[in-house]
Amino acid sequence: MILTLDIGNTNIKTALFEGMEMKEYWRLSTNRNRTSDEYGMAMMNLLKHYDIDVAQVEGIMMSSVVPQVNFTIEHMCRNYFGMEPMKIEPGVKTGINIKYENPRELGSDRIANAVAAYELYGGPCITIDFGTATSFGAISARGEFLGGAICPGLKLAADALTERTAKLPRFELVKPDNVIGRNTVANMQAGIVYGYIGQIKYLVDRMKREMGVEGIKVIATGGLAVLVAGESSAIDVMDGLLTLKGLRLIYEKNAGR
After folding, report:
1. The domain at 97-242 falls in which architecture?
2. Which has the higher per-residue pLDDT, 117 or 229?
3. What positions carry a catalytic annotation?
4. What is the CATH number of domain 2-87?
5. Phi (first) and psi of residue 22, to 5 degrees
6. Which of 9, 96, 147, 165 has the most Cβ atoms closer than 10 angstroms to its Cβ?
């Protein structure tokens, strides 16, 4: 089995794959103060709970947008799994031609999303990853990552609204029934959630016009996508495991190196 780790600003998403079939999926909080032993014991307990022997893990593939925890996770992999994790870095085959001005600037999670979207759903396509930040990626019919856009995530926008205003209260991030709210909390929920849905539609429409081709499929992923996907006509496919599937595909391309 192959262990995949997607280290995000809020959570570490991890899944075990047997071939391309996902066997188990877990989430751990991203904590810069956590030690490699704390992460290691958390992983060992999860494996034990699901009756999985650590010896069944044949390889590890990781992506990270939090450089501060990379050494900790790599140390954990060496100490508890007895192997070095493979990372998305120069020299790793992805099958995606990155058209960024500086390809090194592109986040490894966005590369994994592009690989999975292109191989599983075909191109041209657009990926939207609803995380701490929401990132968009445009992939051509020839498998080129053309670029994209990044904006604050839903939770980040909601937190900023309450932290930077004196009287607005904290609120639960849920979709209200109506855009016209009859109390302050409903007003805030409507503004954040429905405003975000409108933002997604505009950005996707604009990206499609700039790509200038027909038949562009839009694939959404990320923990907060469920708040938007059901309301947005811009999203064609919802795949919550897109990044982890991309990591598994990239591992497969490089397993013999």
Report:
1. 2-Layer Sandwich (3.30)
2. 117
3. 109
4. 3.30.420.40
5. -80, 125
6. 96
